[in-house]
Amino acid sequence: MKLDYKTYCSKVRGCYLGKNIGGTLGAPFECFRGVYDIDFFMQDVSSPVPNDDVDLQLVWLSAIEHEGKNLDSHILAQYWENYISAEISEYGTGKNNYSVGIVPPLSGYMRNENRESNGAWIRTEIWACLCAGNPALAANYAYYDACVDHSGEGIYAAVFTAAVEAAAFFESDIYKLIEIGLSYVPENCGVRNAVEVVLKCYKDGGDWKTARKKLLIAQPSSFGEIGGEWKGVPSVPACEKCPVQKKDGDIPKARHGYDAPASIGIILIGWLYGGGEFGKSVCIATNCGEDTDCTAGTLGALLGIIGGEESIPEKWKKGCSEKIAVCTLRPDLLLNVPETVSALCERVVKQFPAVSFERCAFTENGFEVVAAGSFKYDENAFYPYQQENFKELLAESPSAARFHFPSLTVKLDYGETLVKIEEGVQKTLTVTLCNKLYLSQYLTVRVIGIPDEWNTVNGAVRAVGLEHWHGSKVSHTNSFELTFTPAMLKNYKYELILEISSNGRGEKCYVPVTLINGAC
Questions:
Q1: pTM (2 decimals)?
Q2: Coil/strand/helix, residue 484
């Protein structure tokens, strides 16, 4: 299957126009709980409405433009620290963790009450557009992205959304797309349960209000508890279409920050009950309340991908400004924020050949997008030189950080106590090295910076042998434990470095190890 250049460009424009329209539509109702009956914009939309859902993708676009396709969570975390000004919720926690040396995925997990909220799945369109027709690659990037400031359901929701959106460039059947997305998430998770609850209600003949209530009972969300029941806001006073709301005692109180599953369910409600009709669908998503700008914005993007720019009615396209106003960024010439949605789309399209060169066939009029052989998850579709099997990453503990180098991947697992150390308490780090070359390697691993007072088992230098990939299913990967007992702790933080060198090769790889003495 192939997409011609014109169709691909139309779908990218449909994606970001839909994102902008849905995000603008839902903006006044964000953080409130209620059931509404709106059918168009309720606020003044003559000026652009800032939206963090788009802001964050501008940072990732800049990272791609400057760093190329070999992005991972560490590169994205560096861009996050440089350009994200927001300090609230998971955004701030992830950045604060990273700034002290706690790397992804620990940065998205540690002390992060909002790690299963909505900040990651709302920014997946960039990966879908750059990996059109290749859901596995989109999901891989979505994992690297999400683990910077999320964990658990926050990552599952991002992986699900990215896979569905990437497949939607070629597939339009809602049930097939849902099945594709579910193939990328764990069997037992809140996102899957939310999808199943909504699907069952729809198939049983229940209306969207019933589906919403069953969803929020099965997967309670804290997002609508932030502002409480809708009473109106200055930009949109309560009226007949969005009246003052009363508390629904049947909906249980949620664990704070647990928002992603219900939000994915609300997107599905809008999609199913709106019948794929753009305006009706994004309005139903907004009418469900909770994180309205995100649910309506992502659904608008998805429908824009499926139908292209031409599928979005003119009244919606003309209904709000195409200019981009940012609210969570520290822009400069390197970030180079696009001024309009059109400018953003043009830059995204230019990066497709760089990210998806294996799926790009150049023609006289641009290029064609070539779909992957299978859209569903396939464990045999991952190669060391191409991408990691992110489903294995999802199954790993958040205590395990991965570092990618041209010749090998290094996994550093801090164990159950994460980065914490205590006086006189033995600490064990597990280091796993995976050979990415079709060459055997003997590695020397040296621990730099370990205090003399610490008792280190087996010393600070060791050799590790790795076979090449060809003909080797196991021995291309090898592990060892680095065990020590901290003593005479005087500092709050200790920074070690694993220096990894391959005998007979000039390349050296450096892996930072941050250890915290205190309550972390």
A1: 0.96
A2: strand
